[in-house]
Amino acid sequence: MLKQLKYFQSVVRLGSFSAAAEENFISQSAISQQVQSLERELGFALLVRRNRSFSLTPAGEYFYRKSLLLTADCDRMCAEAAKIAKREAEQEFSRIVLGFPSEFLYVENLEVARLLVAGGRGFLPLEGGERQAAEPLTRVPLV
């Protein structure tokens, strides 16, 4: 129904089925069918159609004004949800990661490291030591 609302809004805003169809990259007959489908679903007429023009019914005028608020709210909701999802994804990648030379990774050491991190005393790979230059560090996610 959201797509149909947007088609209906385009028709009303542009005052033309043809212009609305062009704006939405669909055929004129397809946009007309979508608006008619919306009217059938609602159970009342939104437009009074004449040869090559139309006007809004009183219900259509009310529906048009309210549909603008609804679609604007929907757009804001989608944008906010996308921001939340992005922050969630960024947090997932900002977990603490421990770095050890590969010979240091023994089960008991990794368990101790997990306990330290869980207790708020996590540690990060050392920067710029001899060890780092000689052997790359293995990165192990803790969670």
Helix-strand blueprint:
Elements (H helix, E strand, L loop, with lengths): L1 H13 L2 H7 L4 H15 L4 E4 L2 E4 L1 H36 L3 E4 L6 H12 L11 H5 L3 E4 L2
Antiparallel strand pairs: 1-2, 3-4
Helix pairs in contact: 1-2, 1-3, 1-4, 2-3
Index terms:
143 residues, mainly alpha, two-stranded antiparallel sheet
Molecular structure report:
- It is a single chain.
- The protein is mainly alpha-helical and 143 residues long.
- The chain contains 6 helices and 4 strands.
- A hairpin with a 2-residue loop joins strand 1 and strand 2.
- About 13% of the residues have low confidence.
Shape: elongated
Question: Major sheet: order of its strands?
Answer: 1-2
Describe the largest sheet: 2 strands, antiparallel
The CA-CA distance between the termini, in Å, is 42 Å
Work out the helix count: 6
| Radius of gyration, whole Å | 30 Å
- What is the strand tally? 4
Q: What structural class is derived from the secondary structure elements?
A: mainly alpha
Mean pLDDT: 79
Parts with pLDDT < 50 across at least 5 consecutive residues: 102-107, 124-135
> How much strand?
5-15%
Name the helicity range: 55-70%
Question: Secondary-structure element sequence?
Answer: HHHEEHEHHE
